[in-house]
Amino acid sequence: MPGLPAVAAAALLVAGCTTTSATPVDATAAPTDAAPGPFCAQWRVMVGLQPDDVDGGRVEEVRAAARELARIGTPGDIPRSAREGFVRYVAALSVLTEEQARDGAAAPLGDVTAALGLAVSDGGDLAAVRDYGAGTCFS
To answer: What pLDDT does residue 7 have?
Structure first.
């Protein structure tokens, strides 16, 4: 099932370990009435970004994609827990550093399932947004 890219999950796990001059996107203000089409188009972009993509200096692409996802927002039918995961996901990716991308791609926690398994233990909002994106955009 398509989910959060491995680099996103790794970035969430190592957030705060590496500083960046970028300011995290505050996606709490992102629209809550997005049409499913634009949301899904950008969700597919995010899901398609893999650790190998950012390892070659494409970290800014990931940041820009996260900012665009925040600009689009979420459809109105997104469950609250998934919306909370969306906010965390966008914030973490909007300040992703090359070091975090490299560490996430190389570490065992770069595996999406393992990383999301850890996220489930702290409330499951990342799993909720993963499931929402998969169900809305890939079914």
So the answer is: 44
Break the chain into its structural domains and give their ranges: 6-14+31-137
Q: What is the mean pLDDT of the chain?
A: 72
> What does pTM read for this prediction?
0.72
The 3-state secondary structure of the chain, one letter per residue: CCCCCHHHHHHHHHECCECCCCCCCCHHHCCCCCCHHHHHHHHHHHHHCCHHHHHCCCHHHHHHHHHHHHHHCCCCCCCHHHHHHHHHHHHHHHCCCHHHHHHHHHCHHHCHHHHHHHHHHCCCHHHHHHHHHHHHHCC
Model pLDDT for residues 17-39, shown as the tens digit of each residue: 344 456 888 999 999 999 999 99
CB atoms within 10 A of CB 113: 10
Question: CA-CA-CA-CA torsion for 91, 81, 8, 135, nearest 10 degrees?
Answer: -130
What span, in angstroms and rounded, lies between the C-alpha atoms of 83 and 74?
Answer: 7
